[in-house]
Specification:
The chain is an alpha/beta fold. The chain folds into two domains: 120 residues, Up-down Bundle (Transcription Elongation Factor S-II, Chain A); 332 residues, no CATH class. α1 packs antiparallel against α2 and α6 packs across α14. β2, α12 and β3 form a beta-alpha-beta unit. The chain is 51% helix and 7% strand. The protein has 19 helices and seven strands. The protein has a seven-stranded mixed beta sheet with strand order 1-7-6-5-2-3-4. It is globular and about 65 Å long. The structure holds 6-O-phosphono-beta-D-fructofuranose (F6P) and magnesium ion. 6-O-phosphono-beta-D-fructofuranose binds next to α17. Pfam families: ARMT1-like_dom. Its EC number is 3.1.3.-. Belongs to the damage-control phosphatase family. Sugar phosphate phosphatase III subfamily. Keywords: Hydrolase, Manganese, Metal-binding.
Amino acid sequence: MFEAPYPPWDFTERNSFAFETVIKRWPIILTGIIDNIYCRNHDFGVSLPSKSPEEAAVIEEQIAEGKKIINQVGQIKYDMARDRALPQIPEDGEALVDVYNAELDRLAEKKQNTWLTVPWLYSECYLYRLVRSFFVQTKYWKDHDPFLQQKEATFQKSSKAIFALATTMYELEGDKESLASDSDNLKVIFKEMIQMCLWGNATDLSMLTHLSHEDIQHLQTVGKDAQAARAQYILRDEQEKVWSHLTSLTGKKDSRVDFVLDNAGFELFTDFVFADFLVTYTPYVSKVVFHPKLIPWFVSDVTPPDFKSTTASLLSPTFFPEENTPADAPAATTSKESREHLYTMVKRWESYIQSGVFSLSVPIDYPLGASDVKANFWTSPYPYWNMEELAPELFADLRESSLVVLKGDLNFRKLTGDVQWPPSTPFETAIGPIAGKFPILSLRTNKADVIVAVDDDVAKKLDESGEKWRYNGKYAVVLFQPKVN
Ligand code: F6P
Ligand code: MG
């Protein structure tokens, strides 16, 4: 098994984002879960008087189970603050219990099994799996996603950027013929698309514990000018390599792009737009497979139910509030028109889902917590280095892909093992044995301490500036590693 020559990021470094996470962010996230259950229980309570005795008995049981989950989540908060040992994940019948517990045993032997001594990557994945076990062990809360409401509310606030992008795609429709014969122009559009998809990762809910609606809209500004302004923040930009890789797929039958998804809502929307561009406007890609997480994960990650509801939400005439017409849309574009553009585009996505041009890597109706031999890997605590040994079926599947796009920060942390690489470490080195096994594209806005593929002097200057460039979400990397045959 591959082992990195550097230690992982953990909580011992007091200036790190890891430390800020355990001290500030996790308590906020856990409190959010408690609030969510509390509100649901409150609604159950309000409904009681109108119920029959049989119905009321069921609701009371639901409320009691909800209270139990609240206590369990509260207990983690308490233990964390006191640096207590992490408990074993209970045998709840869902995937990966053994994997998490075996690693916990190993950490206990090294005396690294308390909340402030565990490696950050392991403990954060463990946290979401532990929380999941509280829901799984109930009768009435198994299908409950404690982050769903938050995901949907933020999605609804993203309408401005969504309408603007729908209009951009509509305008592209008119240029379809000319684009087909003009590869230079196609490349220009490709670059806009890939950047739009990259910055779609800037808004994730586990980070947005303190941002306002206006802040979110600002982060989502789309269009050429906004992108040009942001280009300076891409610390390593390998878009050219990606484009030449894509063009090399010319004439290849059944070329498939895989998206290892990150966040639901606006980011998933940008993934769909990029995927749509690839299959509709370029001659290089015939199929796109999207890989979700099978349990509620890092607050905002896409689950199968999120994936399924996304197109329905986008098509619903009432999902987005009326007043959010794009201010930066062309003057002639009315709210009605941009809604129509969105409708046309999303109908096309639905037809792609029906025909298999777009597909989810697991059945689209999978409930939360269903197991899948390939998809389980994404919610394991493992870095991706040893995917071949740890998830051979997934590895074999990705070997067939023409391009694997890994979205977001957590995927980047797992690609690089979340260790303290010197910033100038080549991406190829940091991703260990999976380098060269399938074509990899990492689209990541920086939201954690780990960084690679950035010149040491650039990193040093940024470190000295005092700016929290490693994790404030303002900087990004676009990294490509080709397959070696
Ligand atoms: O909680 C920390 C973290 O893992 C960070 O890496 C990042 O802030 C977030 O969670 C996940 O980000 P993303 O949604 O881009 O994977
Ligand atoms: Mg995420």
